[in-house]
Amino acid sequence: MLQVKLNGKIVMNMIILILAVFVLYMSSLLPSQSGLMELGPSFYPRIVACALILLTIIQAILDLVVNRTKENTVTIKWGRVLGLSLIMITYIYVLPWIGYKIGSFVLMTSIMMLLGVRGHRLIVIPIIVIGVVYLVFQYFLKTPLP
């Protein structure tokens, strides 16, 4: 009999698997289009949920088979977790007032500073990412950002 000791990886795999199955179920409740192309509103959530289920099962098998004898201990830096949570919550609340470009720049630089990134990358990376996202939405998707 295979004995499984619950550790953080196994619990996380189970949570992600349950979430993916829930998304798959909820996407089946969305209306479907009739016709030759069955790319309705449920298409993308189903693809993502199926991919997540497959990858989670693969990860769970790897966690059980590979490197079972080595116990990995991870020290969680709760200050960083709390800081990231506060930054994200603040971003969500101030986004309607300051807009996507400024809000996302402040969000990305704040998170990068919290994670220890220094130097020119602190400014260059957010500008490039925000610029690419803006161009994709504005010119390719023809959708304005807030």
The helix/strand class is mainly alpha
Order of helices and strands: HHHHH
Mean pLDDT: 83
Large-scale geometry = flat
Largest β sheet strand count, sense and barrel closure: none
Strand content: under 5%
Estimate nothing, just give the exact number of structural domains.
Answer: 2
Query: Radius of gyration, rounded?
Result: 21 Å
State the total count of DSSP E strands. Answer: 0
The low-pLDDT segments are none
**Distance, first to last CA:** 56 Å
Per DSSP, the total helix count is: 5
Percentage of residues assigned to helices: 55-70%
Note down, in words, how this protein is organized:
- By secondary structure, this protein is mainly α.
- It has 2 domains: 8-65; 78-140, no CATH class.
- It has helices at residues 8-28, 43-65, 78-98, 100-114, 121-140.
- It starts with 7 loop residues before the first helix and ends in a 6-residue tail after the last helix.
- The model has no long low-confidence stretch (mean pLDDT 83).
